[in-house]
Amino acid sequence: MNANTDIRAAVPGEAVRAAARSRLYALFAQLFRYPEKPVFAALADGSLAAELRDTLAACLPAAAEDFDSRWATALRAGGDFDGYAAAYLAAFENDAPRPSISLYEGSYGQRRNDKPGLLLELKSFYRNFGLAMGDNDLEDALPAELEFMQFLAAKQAQALVEGTDPRPYVHAQKDFLERHLGAWMPAVAGEAQDKLEKGCFTAAAELLAACVALDATGIAAEFAGPGGNA
Asked: CA 118 to CA 124: how far, in whole Å?
């Protein structure tokens, strides 16, 4: 999915928060996509964790309060890139040496019984905003859903900067968090706690679930106020 949207570096008021939320979802998407060397390097030297902390401070300050004590060390990768890539495959794809965690919404809850319907629903969501999946992606993949939230938050920030109506993007985010991303993140975090050893991927899943829950609450409040459906 091509969810890149250019947002000016300095934006006023609520646009700052929306732009920071867009960046937050982009960072999480990087963490859960198949490993790339630049992402590994940023995890290894702590710069990705530092960017997460600063981004959280700008958009979800409640999640940033204990970041250094709870998350900063856990979100650092050790060893080399090949070892990190092997750990990713073991955690999310290979079911070896222990059962892996699915990064697809259709593996959780009631949607397990209606994968085709879920994919069609998500495809409609994306198509409404001019987006389409790449050839090798499924609509319910976690990185795809994170990139969709990245896109919507970026468009919200852009609308606020340009003085156009941000409400369609706020509404879409509220709906998407309630019906999709927010509905299955607790299960992913629970699976990580049960199946994975403590480390980068477990911490990323737990932090993502906490951030999505906080963001869903904030978006619901925003939707009910002047920037939403009022």
From this structure: 10
Beta-bridge partner residues of 141: 104
Rounded CA separation 140/120 (Å): 10
Which among 111, 112, 148 has a CA at the least distance from the CA of 132?
Answer: 148
Residue 128 CB contacts under 8 Å (≥ 6 apart), including other chains: 172
Per-domain boundaries in the chain:
14-224
Query: CA dist 192 to 91, 158, 196, Å?
Result: 8, 35, 5
- Which residues contact residue 187 at a Cβ distance below 8 angstroms, ignoring those fewer than 6 apart? 108, 109
Give the angle subtended at the CA of 51 by the CAs of 47 and 57, to the nearest 5°: 145
**14-224: which CATH architecture?**
Orthogonal Bundle (1.10)
Half-sphere CA count of 143, side-chain side, radius 13 A = 16
Task: Return per-residue pLDDT of the chain as tens, 230 residues.
Answer: 655 444 444 457 889 999 999 999 999 999 999 999 999 999 999 999 999 999 999 999 999 999 999 999 999 999 999 999 999 999 999 887 788 999 999 999 877 788 999 999 999 999 999 998 887 789 999 999 999 999 999 999 999 999 999 999 999 999 999 999 999 999 999 999 999 988 999 999 999 999 999 999 999 887 776 544 54
